[in-house]
Amino acid sequence: MESYDLICPCHFGLESVLKKEIVKLGYEISRVEDGRVLFKGDREAVARANIFLRTAERVLICVGEFTAKTFDELFEGTKALPWEEFIPKDGRFWVKKAASVKSALFSPSDIQRIMKKAMVERLKLRYGISHFEESGNDYPLRVFLYKDRVTVALDTTGESLHKRGYRKKQGTAPIAENLAAGLLMLTKWNKTIPLIDPFCGSGTIAIEAALMAANMAPGAMRDFTAMDWSGIVDKKSWYRALDEARSLSTPIPKSEIQGYDIDPAMVRISRENAERAEVLDFLHFQERDVKDLKSGHREGIVVTNPPYGERMEENEELHEAYRSLGSAMRGLKGWEIYVISSYEKGIGLLGKKPDKNRKIYNGMLKTYFYSFSMSR
Ligand SMILES: C[S@@+](CC[C@H](N)C(=O)[O-])C[C@H]1O[C@@H](n2cnc3c(N)ncnc32)[C@H](O)[C@@H]1O
Predict the structure, then answer these.
(1) Which of 261, 312, 338, 367 to mutate to test the pocket of ligand 1 (most atoms within 8 A of CB)?
(2) In the structure, what pLDDT confidence band is assigned to residue 314 with cuts at 50, 70 and 90?
(3) What residue ranges define each of the domains in the chain, with the CATH number in brackets?
(4) C-alpha span between 44 and 139 (Å, rounded)
(5) Which of 234, 264, 104, 221 is nearest to 156 (CA)?
């Protein structure tokens, strides 16, 4: 079976957890870079990676790499790639996204335009046609330039993998689903340990935890661009991966996962999202102010994403939310508390120094994932 070089972009800071996920799926890692993990895999790997990976952003097939410092070199390098092995005569192809770092070529629109022209040139010769109807399936490409090295990749995913399909409604500052899953994987949490998110918003962290507890594949409820392709990934690979996902899920995990929010509308939304994700039965959502956060368990884990100063208005209410979290934490003796926030002033208001912090980018926003051990 043909082996591809596969590339999975992820949030900056989650590379180590994504790497572990890929190894667990049974694939060999070729390289880990900032914001992406590269590995080898066949067509089954494309289907399985899309369906099973919780922390990846998408699954790309590397079409080729070359160096280009000028637009002529970009054109020739693109034209030399074996496009006919990937794109059929009627395919609709375009460079959906071009990103450039520390490279001579940096204008995304010029890179996109020149590469498309080069691909058309190559395919015209190979298919012996002068006009492309582009009436068939989509073949979107993603291109990264780093220090003039051009990596050209075909996107098998389409809509980003964080869109699992369950979050139809959300609040003003939701956390991406794949980031929520990654945060949980960075903690000591497992399904036997009680988990609380006291600022649950649309329920993302709790729902991702429930999906993990029930071993439910995050991509089993959605479609992917490559599902429509006639070549590269055959239909059987998708069916097999979906069967595997169904056979692995354990519908009644013994877990205690709770989400609270001060806003009753968010509690309602969390329940609706959890129902769509088919995990509502494993979860408990409740309207509750963080100042009333407590638990009868001798140990447990809090993973939470309190309001951020940047996105929400900075006011006394925001400060009070952090102060209240701090005093509630002091009551949770024996627990581990994990907080993702970009609001350093808020962390200062908790009244306890974090034991550790880890830099993670939530999109363009620099955040820290802080951990606190609450000794008994
Ligand atoms: C950044 S959002 C959480 C987003 C969530 N992770 C998601 O994915 O949707 C912060 C949440 O904290 C809630 N909140 C604000 N003050 C609160 C308080 N004192 N107690 C509990 N929840 C509060 C807000 O209603 C909001 O839903």
Answers:
(1) 261
(2) low
(3) 4-155 (3.30.2130.30), 177-216+247-373 (3.40.50.150)
(4) 18
(5) 234
